[in-house]
Design a protein that fits this description.
It is a single chain. The chain is an alpha/beta fold. It folds into three domains: 3-374, Alkaline Phosphatase, subunit A (3-Layer(aba) Sandwich); 381-450, Arylsulfatase, C-terminal domain, CATH 3.30.1120; 477-538, EF-hand (Recoverin, domain 1). The chain is built from 17 helices and 20 strands. Strands 6-5-7-2-8-11-3-12 form an eight-stranded mixed β-sheet, with helices on both faces. A hairpin with a 4-residue loop joins strand 9 and strand 10 (287-289). It is globular and about 75 Å long. The N and C termini lie far apart (55 Å).
Length: 543
């Protein structure tokens, strides 16, 4: 094992099985066949139902529909987290994002610290662009980054992950940021400049994330719709047009037949606000736009949305066009394809042999690209630390094995079991009918959770996070005011199982040595259910 590999493994707060973080960056490549170019277009919050070819009755996506008609529509594609940063980390590394303590989106360092997250994805992790670069590809990343945050100082830039060229937004503090609408233009320029050599491009478009900033032409096209649908349809049209621009460039350069084009989304559609709020400002892109009141995207009838481990939050579009390989106009509804499978699959298309000590969480599904009836053999795992609310955001863990999917709380006191073959919408919980399957999948999920780090790699923390590192909680000085911000930080620290609930034991442990803890706990417990929600605790005053 290299010294680099040993250092990478040593950064975690608990020992891990050796296969989790062993890596080498030596990649061999076959030279006996022309390597296909690869373009991965990754949309943002674009729901499974937000495509004409997926049955939308009011959204028009002619370029996505054309891409589907020329390739294969994989209808059981899952991302590995229901929000952007961890979902993208999985694509980059071929590993479940929880392996890097990336549980939610990268925010300001103080918030990352409260969540037990690093401030950026570890640049020494194995990455798809690095493997492809070493296999002879020229690599580029254009568009959204969000493997760090715009407020984070000292974050590694895309070049450290294996990219030859990049122009991004949602990058680190002090970075030169590309406009969020420049993704297609940068991609086209790169295609023209590199058409004589194999290339790999991440083109990560902004649509349909907020702030919604539709072009006037698209707004005018949909002026006959109601206000909310007009804005969202215009945003979808702008995204679809960007895809069309990239496809046209490939055709103009004569590269269509030897280019793999993939289109997907990082999670399900954003939840729709019930009321308008002030227009949001995106400091990284320097734009204002419409808020989530206009986020009326659709899941195609699946349960849950963004931030949910149900299928509506993690099953997303996945269209693949590779002439001579993917079947034109085919719909694959049998292969459970996931984001971590992209790394080994694409390395397979490029003739790149992964190093023997790389053992990620994905598996090559190249056979499915070639039209074969290929099934994924390994279980799929999800962990979620964020929103915890009814009806669809409560699961903390999920596992899929074959066609069975189990969602659960960390303590297994609440579970649901669904047969995705017959219940794509996850409408019927069959856990009571199959206790043996519940027991087996619960055990799998908990055993997987036990392999995960308990703290982020300290070398992936900015100086801002280190300065914000909390000390042991101290009693408030008599007469002093405890702010909601202080309470929020305390809640996050004391919530040791990360279920967004404080038990009496957790509360006592957090305030060990102080007086009248049980009575103080009860003063927060407004509904007398023996536990504290974040709203009960943060929205009250310490006494």
């Amino acid at each position: 094992m290299s010294a680099q590999s040993r250092r990478f493994r040593g950064h975690h707060a608990q020992p891990h099985p050796p296969f989790l973080f062993v890596l080498s960056f030596a990649v061999s490549a076959k030279a006996d066949a022309a390597k296909p170019n690869i373009i991965f277009i990754y949309a943002d919050d674009w729901g499974w139902g937000d495509l004409g070819c997926h049955g939308s009755t009011w959204l028009k996506t002619p370029n996505l529909d054309k891409l589907a008609s020329q390739g294969t529509d994989f209808q059981q594609f899952n991302v590995l987290n229901p929000v952007c940063s961890p979902s993208r980390s999985a694509v980059m590394t071929g590993m479940f994002p929880a392996r890097f303590s990336v549980h939610q989106h990268f925010a300001a360092p103080a918030q990352n610290h409260e969540r037990g997250m690093p401030d950026w994805l570890d640049p020494r992790a194995p990455t798809l662009p690095r493997f492809l670069k070493q296999a002879g590809y020229h690599t580029a990343h254009f568009g959204k980054w969000h493997l760090t945050n715009a407020q984070t100082e000292g974050a590694p830039k895309p070049a450290e992950y294996g990219y030859d060229e990049y122009a991004v937004f949602n990058g680190g503090a002090g970075w030169a940021s590309a406009d969020l609408h420049a993704t297609a233009a940068n991609t086209v320029a790169f295609i023209k400049a590199n058409k004589a050599q194999p290339f790999f491009i991440n083109a990560w478009i902004h649509e349909s994330h907020t702030p919604h900033v539709p072009t006037p032409a698209s707004m005018d096209k949909w002026k006959h719709l109601d206000e909310r649908k007009q804005v969202y349809a215009a945003v979808i049209t702008d995204g679809d047009n960007a895809v069309g621009t990239i496809l046209d460039a490939l055709k103009a350069e004569g590269l269509e037949d030897n280019t793999i084009v993939m289109l997907s989304s990082d999670n399900g559609p954003e939840s729709t606000a019930s009321k308008r709020s002030a227009n949001k400002f995106d400091p990284d892109a320097n734009v204002t736009g419409y808020d989530t009141f206009y986020s009326v995207g659709e899941t195609g009838g699946m349960r849950g949305r963004k931030r949910s481990l149900f299928e509506g939050g993690v099953r997303v579009p996945f269209l693949v066009r590779w002439p001579g390989h993917t079947k034109a106009g085919a719909k694959n509804d049998t292969t459970a394809f996931t984001a971590v499978d992209l790394l080994p699959t694409l390395c397979g298309t490029a003739g790149a042999t992964l190093p023997p000590d790389y053992q990620g969480d994905g598996e090559s599904l190249l056979a499915a690209f070639n039209g074969e009836n290929k099934s994924r053999s390994r279980p799929i795992f999800w962990q979620w630390f964020g929103k915890n609310a009814e009806p669809d955001w409560w699961p903390r863990l999920a596992v899929r094995d074959g066609d069975w999917k189990l969602v659960m709380m960390d303590d297994t006191k609440r579970v649901e079991l669904h047969d995705l073959t017959h219940d794509r919408a996850e409408a019927t919980d069959v856990s009571q009918d199959h206790p043996d399957i519940v027991a087996r999948l619960s055990k799998l999920a908990l055993e997987w959770k036990a392999t995960l780090p308990t703290a982020p790699n300290p070398e992936c923390l900015s100086k801002q996070s280190i300065a914000d590192k909390p000390t042991s909680p101290k009693p408030a000085a008599k007469g002093s005011k405890v702010t909601p911000e202080v309470r929020a930080k305390a809640f996050t620290r004391w919530d040791t199982n990360k279920d967004d609930i404080l038990t009496l034991d957790e509360y006592k442990t957090g305030l060990k040595g102080q007086d009248n803890l049980e009575a103080r706990f009860k003063s927060f417990d407004k509904d007398s259910d023996g536990k504290l929600t974040r709203e009960e605790f943060v929205g009250s005053s310490l006494k």
